[in-house]
Design a protein that fits this description.
Three copies of one chain form a homotrimer. By secondary structure, chain A is of the alpha+beta class. Helices cover 30% and strands 40% of the residues of chain A. Chain A has three helices and six strands, in the order H-E-H-E-H-E-E-E-E. Chain A has a six-stranded mixed beta sheet. The first copy, chain A, is globular and about 50 Å long. The A-B interface holds A 15-20, 22-23, 26, 28-30, 32-33, 36, 95, 97-101, 107-110, 113, 120, 122, 124, 126-127, 129-132, 144 and B 1-3, 5-7, 9-11, 14-15, 17-18, 21, 58, 99, 101-104, 116, 118, 120, 131-137, 159-162.
Chain lengths: 171, 171, 171
């Protein structure tokens, strides 16, 4: 079905970008899997030691305001955060689920990859319909460390001005 | 833009995993396409003869309880199920749409591939806004049969305790 | 983990289709990115000069009715449309976000690729929870022009009969 010229045109220039895209997708999927299943102890290892993890409303991001709902400036701070999430008693148990799509590689050099992705998070509480708690996007600086991709920086920008009430845990 | 070392590091080990991931994505997309367009007669052929198709709430899955909302232990039972769905008169017509993302290959050997994916299903009824009816994940055992991937086992785990009222048809 | 026979079976026939799939995914991601960030001036360049862009309800599409909520028969008409969207004063500001998944290549020859994808669009308004405004699918005819993929035809079919009130801008 595919003509040879289309095939030829497609393969050569995109091969390595495709591989990199796939690796980033896998990193995002591991990230979602860890959070959706509350395996918080695995969360910090998705980041390198010297890292920055922030969650902020779109308004602040567009205006360049530094105020963030979550701000962790090192892997140690991320560990503290997930311990807090682990120990916190939420009013009601809930299941969160991440849908990460539209992954874009913005820039890549020998040191790091800048990438973005859209994210939709839905939550299901006992006796209630599943509902959207967050839509937004990730803006990442990703590096290769110990043979796999990890976040040097992850910024989660959410579209709402309202702070989702489930924002005790990382998103 | 992409440095050579990044390229080299990326291509070699991931090539075949990437191809396999793509094939699984295509299987999932065909699955969603068949259900969203109610081409139920094509549904059984996404499975091998000797198969297991189940739909169950997350609670039961986590507790290891066998009780499932849908349980088909062979392709013949799946055929019966879709015939029932075809013939049932639902109170109101609705359009369902599957969004399958976050595909993960968990394990693969010469015989089968274990994979997972997140799924969000929305429904649109006449005169109503589109709403979420199901969020959850698939847990699959996939085999190559007659030149294409098919499900040996598909388990759909949904986050809610409530049974979606559209669960006459497979999800 | 991956057995050699699985690897071999997977790589050969799918390589170019995979590359093409990746390019189409990138085109879709660029499309979503432009609309979600209201960079409407970049929108027409996702199409070739002589193109067709339509948005219609599923009912009309299934019945073969030509009536569309949006119908642009050239790149110039698309430019007019986005200018109108830019200048319109919506009652309330909102953030839209596209989640495009389940990309399927339906056919491809030397001239064009026919492809489909599912789309979920959510909107966030000030003081309100994020909500679904549109679920549906794209049906595309894509060509290679000036070294990149562009839409020759894009048809957005939405599941609802109701016209989303945010349908001033392209979706």
């Amino acid at each position: 079905m595919l003509a040879d010229d289309l095939r030829q045109a497609a393969i050569a220039p995109k091969a390595s970008l495709l591989e990199l895209h796939f690796e980033i997708e896998q990193l995002n999927n591991a990230y979602a899997d860890v959070l959706d299943n509350e395996r918080y102890e695995e969360f910090p290892d998705l980041f390198v030691e010297d890292c920055l993890y922030r969650v902020m409303p779109r308004e602040n991001h567009l205006l360049g305001l530094p105020i963030a709902a979550i701000r962790c400036e090192s892997k140690a701070m991320i560990k503290d955060r997930v311990n807090a999430a682990r120990e916190s008693t939420m009013a009601e148990p809930r299941t969160l689920r991440h849908f990460i799509s539209n992954i874009r590689i913005l820039e890549a050099d020998a040191e790091a990859i800048c990438a973005a992705a859209n994210v939709l998070i839905v939550q299901t509480m006992i006796g209630r319909m599943t509902e959207i708690v967050l839509s937004g996007f990730y803006l990442d600086r990703i590096v290769r460390s110990d043979g796999r991709l990890r976040f040097k920086e992850r910024l989660c920008v959410y579209d709402s001005l309202l702070l989702p009430n489930s924002l005790i845990a990382p998103v």
